[in-house]
Amino acid sequence: MTSAGRADIAGRTATLLASMRAARPLVHNIANYVSMDVAANALLAIGASPAMVHAREEVAEFVGLSAALVVNIGTLSTPWIEAMIIAAEAAKGQGKPWVLDPVGAGATTLRNEAVKMLLPHRPSIIRGNASEIMAVAGGAGVAPKGVDSANTTQEALAFALSLAEHEDCIVVATGAVDIVTDGRRVVKLANGSPMMAKVTALAARSPLSPEHLPLSPPTNSTRPSRQSRFMASSAKSPRSRRRARARIAWPFSMGSSRSDRRRSRVACGSSTDAWKWRKILPALPGDR
């Protein structure tokens, strides 16, 4: 993709995000127990209003009140599957977008059957890790390890393209590099962090290599750290260096006003306790 194409996608994304935040849509979630609060907080963070509703007696009615539906099959049971099918059918009938997250697809017969029953209701987006997308697309020999991805998104690219074209929807395969496709166009996103794989429900991500996500400034950067600049600006005398070091070590002694020093004495017990932190920090050149 050209730089102009990337800029166009970025600009349109920003416009859509601003419009969504202005509308503050109500999003109906049938989410699993593990990811429920994470999903709710993520929706709040981007400006939507989440609702976690899964009782089969009310899901159809609640879809009518919502702007979109998300179905996550992470923690399945027969009543939940029934509620998912009812909600998906209602969303399709009312022309509302809905997202299918086929967690653990390919791992068990129950999950495979649940996905088969949901697909006829035409999800707008299917989002899963590489192995889940391959399983949903009917990839032979795919056996995910629990809900973690055993495959890379590059391996799932052909499956994602085929699935998106067959289901006439958007397919998102997540991993170290996310793949988003409508069956014709493909966008690759290398956003995220390797730490996301260490937190349940954030994402099923593979470890990122440096070329995928530069987490720190380039090694040839000449810009000093904030602490170095602070110490350098305070290095006019041994006394000012001691003050600078204490301010970094002890948050209550930040500042030099009389009220700052009084708060420091109250917090530390005495005005000299803050200087005990000097033992933890290395000596500065010329300090005495």
Q: What's the shape?
A: globular
**Integer-rounded radius of gyration:** 26 Å
The CATH homologous superfamily of the largest domain is named Ribokinase
Helix content: 40-55%
CATH architecture title of the largest domain? 3-Layer(aba) Sandwich
Order of helices and strands: HEHEHEHEHEHHEEEHHH
CATH topology value of the largest domain: UDP-N-acetylmuramoyl-L-alanine:D-glutamate ligase
What number of domains?
2
Helix tally equals 10
Largest sheet: 8 strands, mixed
The total strand number stands at: 8
- Please write the CATH class name of the largest domain: Alpha Beta
Which regions have little confidence, pLDDT < 50, spanning 5+ residues? 139-147, 204-222, 248-257, 259-288
Word description of this protein:
Helix content is 41%, strand content 12%. It is α/β, with parallel strands linked by helices and 288 residues long. It has two domains: 3-198, UDP-N-acetylmuramoyl-L-alanine:D-glutamate ligase, CATH 3.40.1190.20; 226-279, no CATH class. An eight-stranded mixed sheet has the order 2-1-3-4-5-6-7-8, sandwiched between helices. 30% of the residues are buried.
Please outline what is shown here.
The chain is of the alpha/beta class and 288 residues long. The protein contains 10 helices and 8 strands. The chain has 2 domains: 3-198, Ribokinase (UDP-N-acetylmuramoyl-L-alanine:D-glutamate ligase); 226-279, no CATH class.
